[in-house]
Amino acid sequence: MKQRTITAVFFAAAMIGGIYGGTWPFFFLFLAIAVGSLWEFLGLMLPREQTFFLGKRLIGTLLGLAALLMATCYRFGDLFPAGALQPFLRDWPFVLTYLVGWTLLVELFGASKAPFQNIGYYAVGIFYIALPIAMLFDVASLSDYHPHRVMGILWLIWTNDTMAYLIGSQIGRRKLFERISPKKTWEGTIGGAICTVLMAWAISLYFNDFSTAQWLAVGAVIGIFGTLGDLVESMLKRSIGVKDSGNLLPGHGGLLDRFDSFLFVAGWVWMVVKMLSVIGY
User: Fold this and answer.
1) Distance (Å, rounded) from C-alpha 275 to C-alpha 281?
2) What's residue 133's pLDDT?
3) N or C: which end of the chain has fewer CB within 10 A?
4) DSSP 13-45
5) Contact present, 121 and 129 (Cβ < 8 Å)
6) Is pTM beyond 0.85 here?
């Protein structure tokens, strides 16, 4: 319990310091989270007994990092002056295709028993981890950074998780998804979602980084998809028979354990914020 508390304090301090320290501390904080999460994910999915395990794990992590950096540099070219790289960044999907080609060569010479399965893991790492964090950078608007947006999203995810647990433990009767997570209940999930929307309304009274409609929409999205993100990571861990994604955070598991809901939610938050901005809310 003591170790868990100490980890939580240092983790919270790092998150708050990174988010409110300015654009660059925020950028490097979530860049580190992306790299650590990719490393954990590939460590879980790639068979350890295969040849060049660490090399393939590193290649997959670098591929995800490259996708994140290309998407970010393309969106915020004024913040990341690239000079001669601009033509490549403008056509980053094509550049990414070439990077995937390199992974094909890695697997060709890597003597894997299931090479295309490994390539699939690299691709999932990009879409499950790297691109959601690129979407967070877009929501936070790096060139005109809004830290309250980031903290508000994380606070709403924490609200959803905490209230779903508290309500479910008190009045939960009907299992939500017993095959994947035996402790989650419909009562806890619905209660957590309602509390998250109410918290979003409260945040909108103090933080005007989003409109009230946007905050409420973000709260609703997190109330729905935050729980689903947790279930997706539980499905992943159950499929390979592990309890935690890693041990980077003593007493709390790994980065994927801490950011499972966030990674799944980020894309939906990005979409709803963009849609409401287009229609004038």
Assistant:
1) 9
2) 95
3) N
4) HHHHHHHHT-HHHHHHHHHHHHHHHHHHHHHHH
5) no
6) yes
